[in-house]
Amino acid sequence: MILSPYDNDEYADVREGVRRLCADFPGDYWRKLDETRSYPTEFVNALTEAGYLSVLIPEEYGGSGLGLSAAAAVLETIQAEGCNGGACHAQMYTMGTILRHGSEEQKQKYLPGIASGKLRLQAFGVTEPTSGTDTTALRTFAKRAPVRAAPHDHGRLLAAVADGAYLAHFVGQRQQRRRAGKEPAAEIDPEPVAHHRNA
Fold first, then answer.
1. How far is CA 4 from the centre of its chain?
2. Domain residues of the chain, as ranges?
């Protein structure tokens, strides 16, 4: 089944594996969750155990290191099969903050747990009352300081926390937006601004 112009044989095995997994979560499963307003824990656990939510994490930290195209293939297939990728996509990409900006110690500490599902990183705040979902309009930012970055709040920061999220991180925007294309750019302290649920 061709899902998009980018669907090719490179990730055919990934797509087929995701299709088989999604077959175990038919429409009745999603309707019951919708009726009870519940989180799809079983679905997310199955994706995690199969390794599909760690495709962006390098192998040395417990992921498969397949890259963005593989991640897109996973999410696209989940949606095409009638399941809800919105419930799990953050587990795939929010770890990028640690991967890109974290120290080696932080990567060793957090990424293997995220890859295995022992640590959930699915919650993050990206909006304010005045910016909505336009993350380029955020006014809250973190500023580097000699001791530690502190958030400068220009309004209430709204955040949605997914059930089962054990680690949440704050993403702010630089004081001034990048001039080219209003791209958001986060500044973070070497220590992540994080909240840990009691384990």
1. 22
2. 9-92, 122-199
- Domain 9-92 class in CATH: mainly alpha
AA identity, residue 49:
E
Instruction: 66-71: list long-range contacts, CB under 8 Å, 24+ apart.
Output: 66/11, 66/14, 69/6, 69/10, 69/11, 70/11, 70/14
User: How far apart are alpha carbons 117 and 114 in whole angstroms?
Assistant: 5
Distance CA 78, CA 23 (A): 10
Report whether 175 contacts 143 (CB < 8 A).
yes
Q: What is the DSSP letter of 95?
A: T
Close Cβ partners of 73 (under 8 Å, ≥ 6 residues apart): 7, 11, 14, 15, 18
DSSP reduced 3-state for 113: helix
Q: Are 120 and 91 in contact (CB under 8 A)?
A: yes
Q: Which amino acid is at 131?
A: S
pLDDT by residue, tens only, the chain of 199 residues: 555 555 567 899 999 999 999 999 999 999 999 999 999 999 999 999 999 999 999 999 999 999 899 999 999 999 999 999 988 888 888 888 888 888 999 999 999 999 998 888 776 666 677 777 677 777 776 676 665 545 544 444 444 444 444 444 444 433 334 433 444 434 333 343 333 333 3
CA 68 – CA 21 distance, rounded (Å) = 20
